Amino acid sequence: GHLVPWIFCKWLQDKFDCEFYFQMTDDEKFMMRPDLTLEQTHAFAYENALDVIALGFDPKKTFIFSDIDYAKTLYKISIQVAKNVTTSTAKAVFGFKNSTNIGMVFFPSVQAAPCFLPSVLKGYNVPVLIPAAIDQDPYWRITRDVAPKLGYYKPAAIHNMFLPGLEGPSGKMSASKSDTAIFSVDPPKEVDKKVKRAFTGGGQTVKEHKEKGGNPGVCTIYQYLYFIFEEDNKKIKEIHDGCKSGEVFCGECKNLLSEKLVKFITKHQANREKAKDVLDKFLLKD
Amino acid sequence: GHLVPWIFCKWLQDKFDCEFYFQMTDDEKFMMRPDLTLEQTHAFAYENALDVIALGFDPKKTFIFSDIDYAKTLYKISIQVAKNVTTSTAKAVFGFKNSTNIGMVFFPSVQAAPCFLPSVLKGYNVPVLIPAAIDQDPYWRITRDVAPKLGYYKPAAIHNMFLPGLEGPSGKMSASKSDTAIFSVDPPKEVDKKVKRAFTGGGQTVKEHKEKGGNPGVCTIYQYLYFIFEEDNKKIKEIHDGCKSGEVFCGECKNLLSEKLVKFITKHQANREKAKDVLDKFLLKD
Known about the structure:
The structure is a homodimer of 286-residue chains.
Chain A: H1 3-16, E1 20-24, H2 26-32, H3 38-54, E2 62-66, H4 71-82, H5 87-94, H6 102-122, E3 129-133, H7 137-150, E4 156-160, H8 188-197, H9 206-212, H10 220-229, H11 233-244, H12 250-282
Helix pairs in contact in A: 2-3, 3-12, 4-6, 6-7, 8-12, 10-12
């Protein structure tokens, strides 16, 4: 799920030769999660960085930073944003309560900072596009309100849908529940197992599936293929229609996805190992 | 007025050979004051640093930092504090409203950070004492609540009273109203003028003063002498009693204070010029 916007960013960089700034919000995760230490969220951030680099971004045009490690540059931008956001706005937009800690209340201004970072670093106004999952939209709404007050362009946003969790459309992927998602560090055998166990849109029995057909709209397997792993639109339509008509069975789709996913993850994990050696080339420092 | 806690800190360093950490809250001033830019509050901070250095602190044991320039180290400490302070607490303690900007709401955690900074820098727990004006007390109350949760000693605090403004006990010193205070950069002639114009506790007329005596308790001149400029306790008692009995006149006290103040400020300004060359030796960097 995490990979989806990053894969899209990689596509954007390839198509438009644009720069990519990747913010690792280790501060937010720490302040939001009572169960996690700063050391843990900081370490998680750099695990994410390896996944980003493994996708093949151009080190000359890709800038990765942790909120904690890059705080000097970010804080200076953040306080300019913060001065223009009332507590009332933050409460209304994010649902903060009086019981919310004061770090979380400030955080929207840290989240906003990278929208203005390229302009600050270059010394002239740079338009930015933020690809993110739809749940992040409120941050950019606030950021767009503040931008003109600071003399910057409003950032543009583009959002992707959520991939369903492996347990189906009602569940959510969760890093703490290993069966809900495939992790970039899962062994390929485990990936295959997870795919085979995943929720599908197929009938309860072969007989029912043949008679009534399946529902790709709620099918995890279908959506993984549709969003990422099957790039051939003709093939996707065949699967979709075949499922609905009861001619394509879940086993076939699972085999197809597993094969593609195992191939992807095997290559990704090799790239991820190599990423450890070049990580430093991607990091912004202040 | 600003100088009072710093002069006390200098006394503490001389007596106890202790380290002195001086936080310049240029971020707070910027977020609190709609009329000031970041560049302005940042520049003001370094003007304050010159005054501190001019008082004669030991460069080996004195560490000066701006919240903006030292944000990398401070932010990491601040978010640990922030995680343990609810919005509710910050509102109750500081009177924040929903209209308060989110930077001001976060700021108590930045203000708290230096209490733990020596421990962070040294890697072992260091007890700290915070000399400050009494209005700053709420910050240390919060900091003391959080300290044990982070594994640090609770900071101790010691507070000084406010010096009255030159216009008397009802007014406040204000950097934007030049007649309310003596500034460390005022020309000595201006200092003399300000002392001569200041509010006193004397009678309205010589006759009245002789008959009824004056009131040193509300007298600006007396309090400047008492708090800082007349170190001889016997002499202070003479002035106090002489004023009350109507034998010592305002003119005498004003002459005494002006002489001492002009001497102090002349020396201070020379030291302040020299401070510009050694400023860098005092600055903490991250």
